[in-house]
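Q: Could you fold this chain for me?
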Amino acid sequence: MKWLKRILIALAVLLVIAGALPFFISLDDYIPRIEKEVSARLDEPVSIKSIRFGALPLPHVTVEGITVGKTDDIRLGKVLVTPDLLSLLQPTKVIRSIRIDSLVLTRKAIGTIPAWSRPDAAGSPPPPQFRIESIRLDNAMVRLDKASFGPFDARVRLNSKGEPEDASISTRDGKLKALIKPDKSKYLIDASAKSWTLPVGPALVFDELVVRGVATLNDADLGEGSAKLYGGTAIGKATASWRKGLRLDGNLDVSQLELKKIASMLSPGAHVSGKLSAKPVFSASAKSADQLMNALRLETLFSVQNGALHGVDIQNAATTLIKQGTTGGETRFKQLSGHLAMEHGGYRFTQLKIASGALAADGNVSISPKRELSGRINAQVSAVGTSVAALAARKMRGCLAQIAGTMLGVAPDQMDFRDGQAMVRGAPEKALALRRLAGTAHWNPSLLPEGMEPGLQVTATFSFPLAAPPEDIKPAWYFLFLFQTLKLFPGEILGLNGETIAILLISVGIFILFILPALDGKSRSGERSPLFTVIGICYLLYFLIMTVVGYFS
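A: Sure. Below is the predicted structure, expressed as structure tokens.
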């Protein structure tokens, strides 16, 4: 038993030495050489903070504080490399796993990485043969100029040929998960999300999102996509390519989306609510992902049900004679439909139609990228039906007030109507149900006011009142003498309409003025004609005097 005890003690000592040895072996002396070789390989400056060797639980190398690029386009907090020790004696070295913590990629780095994978120029020595079995990313982040994705975790497993077997990506909050599996030269994508916010463009929140498709190293075809958001659904497909810049094309079928929050995201000045249904077709081409929204082009026919345009009352603006006070309020509608074209940050609405009871409007509106509004809305308000109903309701209220006042012994103007009852103002305990009043009018006519016929029936007739013209109305200056002449005549002359007589006399005067040259025989022979000269001067003086009087009156 002594020999077994000695072996255990020796093993314990070896484990202690193996655990403590890395603290006494410095690998930092290799940092300058590694930085130089990697920088030459990537054609970018590379910086490493420290390199440590560890023996437990498996032999590994830890590299911390790695930055790549002049502006730190790539940052790696810590990289842990675990090799297969037995493979170090073989031509192909095997790395069991590479674990990367706190990776940060910028837009510039994403565009540079593909160039690093190109083979070296002819004549350069072949690189050492390595095979990696798995790669793991923890707390990674992709930062674009005005957007970001992450933090997220990623796992990649590779086969004996160095090709990916499968890969998975998931955000650290668990809201987004994606699984990628190779299929010959393509990759199958299956992604799902819950309560996830779109990282690029408007901050749309998806209650549920499912995307399935196929991707290659240069493009992706997302042929099946469905989402639930803002109380509605969206189904569609899209294609994307990134060989030369970014290209996005697709279409959607949107149904019953609550528009209020979406509209404010797309355009902060937009205030519209309702249930949106549309089938947009979109495309975009840009150099980077953060430029896609500005390059987005979208066209669609749309329909919004049971909503409101907040901040403008079209019906009030259409029925008032003055421009002040027409802003504010809201325009409620049953249906708003039209065609939308969005391009370069601007919006163009055509074939607009608004239907809401008495209101009917149509027109075209454009919103520039600077949020400048232009266009025209034609509104028609059919107020006759509403006015007739209001008149009939007031008459019916008066009849019921007379019946209730007679039964309760008060004047009709002392009656109030509330909660299905007619009650005495100031004495709510004295009240009669409306159904009792209606029954009394039909079945107990003895209780009706004197002179009122049995039954409840009213007739209302509505006519538009003639509006008086404004007092300061004036025609153009060259018609002022005629306008002022009309004002000289009374409304009636010898039983005839005064305006008619005035128009006849003015017409005769103008006719005489035109034929004066033909009546002046002396002027044709070159002689002076004092009579016609005086007549012409009188016409001219009358024109000047009546024009001045009309202008200052």
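A (continued): The longest strand covers residues 327-343.
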